[in-house]
Amino acid sequence: MNITDEILGKADGIEVRIMDLSGANGSEPLETVRDFTSLAHANSFARRYVRDSMEICRPRGGNAEAAREAWFAFGEDAVITDAEGRAIEGGWNSGNELADFAATPPRDREDRNWRMIDPRKLAAEEDDDGDEAETEE
Predict the structure, then answer these.
(1) What is the rounded CA–CA span in Å between residue 70 and residue 62?
(2) How far apart are CA 105 and CA 84, in angstroms?
(3) What is the separation, in whole angstroms, between the first and last Cα of the chain?
(4) DSSP state of 20
(5) What's the predicted TM-score (pTM) here?
(6) pLDDT band for position 67 (cuts 50, 70, 90)
(7) What is the pLDDT of residues 2-51, one digit of tens each?
(8) SS3 for 33?
(9) How far apart are CA 130 and CA 88, in angstroms?
(10) Closest alpha carbon to 5 in 86, 82, 90
(11) Gap between the Cα atoms of 104 and 126, Å rounded
(12) Cβ neighbours of residue 113 closer than 8 Å, sequence gap 6 or more
């Protein structure tokens, strides 16, 4: 294992499973996000995704308990797993920060901007750059 893998975590097989807490999808994920560059990338994506979900569910004028209840009823969780669905050591877990998320809205937009670091978007941008390079030749 190289030093980058030791610091950031190896990315092979890391998935973030988006779970619908309303139960509409049963125990199956709504979607599975792959192609993270590192465990740190997956952790940041999952954390921001859940933070955004909490803010979408937060009732206007509600307290922390109302925010938590709304999230558990209507929100989406992000679970970091390997390709077989097993938890990954060092993977971020929403349970560790959920009370803080409910009690305190984010200070800035970046705290919940998961789209900016979505590996699907990053891959699409790389494909677009590759197409441009090919047409310039």
Answers:
(1) 10
(2) 34
(3) 38
(4) E
(5) 0.84
(6) very high
(7) 555 555 556 789 999 999 999 998 899 999 999 999 999 999 999 999 99
(8) strand
(9) 33
(10) 90
(11) 36
(12) 48, 52
